[in-house]
Amino acid sequence: MKAIVVGGGIGGLATAIALSQDGWTVEVLERAAQFTEVGAGLSLWPNALRALDALGVKHDIEQRALRGVQAGIRHPSGRWLSRTDTAELERRYGRLAMIHRADLLSVLRDAAPADSLRPGVSVHRVTRNGLVEHSNGTSKADVVIGADGIHSAVRRSIWPDAPAPHYVGYTAWRMVTKPIAVTEEGETWGRGQRFGYAQLPDGRVYCFATANTAEGTAGSSLAELRRRFGSWHDPIPALLDATDESAVLNHDIYELPRLSTYVMDRVILVGDAAHAMTPNLGQGACQAIEDAVALPAALRTNQLAAYDRARRARTQMIAQRAHRIGRLGQLSSPPAVALRNSAMRITPSSSLLRSLDPVLSWTPDGANT
Ligand SMILES: Cc1cc2nc3c(=O)[nH]c(=O)nc-3n(C[C@H](O)[C@H](O)[C@H](O)COP(=O)(O)OP(=O)(O)OC[C@H]3O[C@@H](n4cnc5c(N)ncnc54)[C@H](O)[C@@H]3O)c2cc1C
After folding, report:
1. Which domain holds residue 42?
2. Of the residues 28, 148, 174, 254, which should be mutated to test ligand 1's pocket, given the most ligand atoms within 8 Å of the CB?
3. How far is the CA of 100 from the centre of ligand 1 (A)?
4. Which residue minimizes the CA distance to atom 6 of ligand 1?
5. In terms of pLDDT, which residue wins out, 322 or 84?
6. 134 CA: nearest ligand 1 atom
7. Which of 124, 234, 240, 364 has its CA 20 to 30 A from that of 298?
8. Alpha carbon of 338 to ligand 1 centroid (Å)
């Protein structure tokens, strides 16, 4: 049986590994000239590490990842608003890891069958019976997996009436600094803007920041980041000083309105193509990897409808939670921010952890859940 995977990002490569391990002949069509990722970090939560274990690559990932350290949310003055008990999180759910995206991609690319990878092939259109029109001609497969991200051509072909992704009102910057030591990590929430950072295994630090802005206006200048965050608590100014201008990436944040199905005949959507969500829970890529791991059993047992129901329920629940956290994090009116900060200060870290239970307790054995 042959599967064509459209898109060779995290979701597409994870799907290619999962399907080839289950006996499928796989082709991954990727429009970029190489299988690689942007220069930023990524959090891999315990649910994703379990999924990566099922793909047989957890060890390779852990070699390139750093364990989560003490973390939490602070006020721009440096005062803690809430602490995450990472030791307790690990005890309950397992390890949390920070990795450079390029490292994750390279582990997945190496684990996918070498002869399945077709870089430089751009897909234009697919049909429900498994026909794929692309820049090199036409191919046919038993199933087509749309793993081509938030602006998916596969989704546009098969779900032409699905609403387009919409801007959520804030933009995000990401950058990786030169090596610099930080002792703690986490996020800092101000008024309508946030800054976060986490150490990477090679001593560099992955930073991200958000701000409420009009769509398409933010730009990727370090001066803008200094203007917004340069007076915030240590080590934020030092992290900005350790960043090259060329390392700053800026992307407005979009999310995909809920789809009513991820499966149509022989075409299946995974990852951002199916459920692009705001990054507030750090779960977008984690969910793409879960999709990949749940798919082979569903195909083998002819249970695609159950797969569809379970993956939609789970990913749409997580997207909704991420959306809500984003709204709280981006509050800008002083009274609302004061109320939010007081609520965070009095919420025990144990109840924050408990609230993550539905997200983090996923296991591959739960089949489609
Ligand atoms: C600021 C920010 C921070 C984030 N942080 C985290 C985090 O910490 N943890 C986490 O789990 N997630 C995080 N995410 C989400 C995560 O980046 C995405 O969910 C994840 O990359 C989705 O992977 P994907 O493979 O589905 O899609 P993509 O990564 O978008 O990959 C799609 C691939 O398809 C290719 N493609 C597109 N169109 C075509 C075509 N027509 N033909 C052929 N190829 C095509 C593209 O070139 C690309 O390689 C974050 C997102 C943002 C914006």
Report:
1. 2-68+96-165+258-329
2. 148
3. 14
4. 282
5. 322
6. 42
7. 124
8. 34
**What is the CATH classification number for the domain harbouring 32?**
3.50.50.60
Measured from the CA of 270, which atom of ligand 1 is nearest? 26
Which residues line ligand 1 at a C-beta cut-off of 6 Å? 6-12, 29-32, 42-43, 122-123, 147-149, 153, 172, 174, 208, 251, 271-273, 279, 282-286, 288
Q: Domain for residue 142, yes or no? A: yes
In a domain, 178, yes or no: no
Count: domains in the chain: 1
Ligand 1: residue of 272, 291, 321, 362 to mutate (most ligand atoms within 8 A of CB) is 272
Please indicate, yes or no, if residue 365 is contained in any of the structural domains: no
Helix/strand/coil (H/E/C) assignment for every residue in the chain: CEEEEECCCHHHHHHHHHHHHCCCEEEEEECCCCCCCCCCEEEECHHHHHHHHHCCCHHHHHHHCEECCCEEEECCCCCEEEEECHHHHHHHHCCCEEEEHHHHHHHHHHHCCHHHEEECCCEEEECCCCEEEECCEEEECCEEEECCCCCCHHHHHHCCCCCCCEEEEEEEEEEECCCCCCCCEEEEECCCEEEEEEECCCCCEEEEEEEECCCCCCCCCHHHHHHHHCCCCCCHHHHHHCCCHHHCEEEEEEECCCCCCCEECCEEECCHHHHCCCHHHCCHHHHHHHHHHHHHHHHHCCCHHHHHHHHHHHHHHHHHHHHHHHHHHCCCCHHHHHHHHHHHHHCCHHHHHHHCHHHHCCCHHHCCC
Q: What is the pTM of this model?
A: 0.97
pLDDT bucket at 342, cuts 50 / 70 / 90: very high
Find the mean pLDDT for residues 30-40.
90
| Centre of ligand 1 from the C-alpha of residue 10, in Å | 7
